[in-house]
Amino acid sequence: MIPAARLATLPKVELHLHLEGSLRPATVLALAERNGIDLGCDDEDALVERYRFRDFLHFIELFYAGLSVLQTPDDLVTAADALTTELAAQNVRWAEITTTPQAHLAHRGLAAAEYAGALDQAQRNAAAKGVEVRWILDISRGDELPDDHLTAGLLTGPDAPAGAVAMGLGGPEAEWPARLYVDTFAQARAAGVPAVVHAGEAAGPQSVVDALDLLHSQRIGHGVRALEDPALVERLVAEQVPIEVSPTSNVLLGITPGGIERHPIGELLRRGVNVSVNTDDPGYFLTTLTRELELVQAHHGVDGAGLVALQRRAIEASFAPAATRDAFLDELAKWEAAGHDD
To answer: What CATH architecture is 4-322?
Structure first.
């Protein structure tokens, strides 16, 4: 076992992380006070008690309630700064952070240029801490409707954030299947914007197939329910489709019942699926990337070499430029050469 202090120094990559889901209770309370928002509670313990989810749809309900504290571009920068300070403390070098434009442009009335400017400022602030950040602009199924094209329009227009690298699709998979969003993803793809789609989380294997075949997703967010279809698993292995797995998220939302020790990440790895480990919504799930790696090590037999391999696969699945990938892999090799202590 790699000691926690040593694991904390492992150079890391995170590919599946929502800015709006990263808000720790302290940040939520501070932003609520700043904006005069009554949350119905005024201490962290009371707020944490709300972070008990009956199911996936209940989580989404609470998630959107939490968005009320993000009112201004400065609030977005504050939230991102809090997150990237945490990432820097964990030695995360590259992070692709998902953010949902609809929540800020349509619901809060921010101008596209204001939203993009906040993300650009947050990206610069992160770089000063040693964390390279890029943005995945995400459609939340059922909130941004299939014919709205808000996110695709932003990504392909003059006000796209400088660090935007892909378009995502999250939210209720079963209720709003991928086929409904074919046109908006085709619009983004025609402009050279790749897709990164949530699938195989709240819906079964067909959602993964549709994400790949209909939306041309380059990675799959979550994807754990692919195991329900052996033929799909064979395809994922043969094509080495990157799967962004978030163990604590899956357990707390009831996607993979039975506790962390029964999470299928071990089986995915044994079968040769191209897996990375991520936090998803660390503020709501009260976790960190270091903690997720500790859990994988403790419960699924991933040794020091396996933890290094997870980070290697993550950077190779990222949208990082070649020079950044090479620098990260060099740092990772040096960490490995220094010994795992496991």
So the answer is: Alpha-Beta Barrel (3.20)
